[in-house]
Amino acid sequence: MKRASTFLALMVYSLVLFAQDESPSCPLRRSYLVVIKAEQLMDSLQKQGADTLLFYHRYADNTSFGYGKIIWRSRGVTKQYTINYNHETNRISAISYLTLQPDNIFSYFFQQRLDTLSSNPRDEELESMSHDGRHLVWVRTKNQSHCFEIRRAIVYHYPAHPRSQFVSRLMRVSELREMENGRKRMGIKPN
């Protein structure tokens, strides 16, 4: 009887944890290799004591193309893994590691209260585009989980929005330069 109640308590606790991390608003594509690898790394990092974790996934609609970044903070130091995907071989091609100095990623996220921001800029024309890229951001702390997804076109056309500014901090430098050059050509003012 004692084992059954312990098992039941563990099951309820597991469901509570699962419900916290698996918010219906977090559209993780669990069939994507980048997401699978990121979840494995994040779980391992959390078990090792990482107190704040961020998963950033850049991908194209209807494909698994893209890359991911895991940024975490442990004992005041911010570090990053980048997960690269090779669409020709359908495999993870490389995972690179670096220490970030200074920590402007988590500082911006919490100072701008992105965990309380509940929407992206609305633009029906941009939202209806097919084959537009997407940016997924998922932040986990010991006590909460927050996730949002924003289309590439929204980030491009609404640079002053806090989510657009945050995603711009996470993008690859080459993508950011390409986006900024395109904004200049179109006369879109940066922030």
Task: Describe the protein's architecture and organization.
It is a single chain. Helices cover 39% and strands 28% of the residues. The chain is built from seven helices and six strands. A hairpin with a 5-residue loop joins strand 1 (52-60) and strand 2. It starts with a helix and ends in a 5-residue tail after the last helix. Residues 2-24 have low confidence and may be disordered.
Using the alpha-carbon principal axes, give the shape: globular
Write down the overall mean pLDDT: 80
Quaternary: single chain
* Strand neighbour order, sheet with most strands: 4-3-2-1-5-6
Low-confidence stretches: 2-24
Structural class: alpha+beta
Distance between the termini: 62 Å
Q: Number of helix segments?
A: 7
In short:
The chain is 39% helix and 28% strand. It has 191 residues and is of the alpha+beta class.
SSE topology:
Layout: H1 2-21, H2 33-47, E1 52-60, E2 66-74, E3 77-86, E4 91-100, H3 105-111, H4 124-127, E5 133-141, E6 145-151, H5 152-157, H6 162-170, H7 173-186
Antiparallel strand pairs: 1-2, 1-5, 2-3, 3-4, 5-6
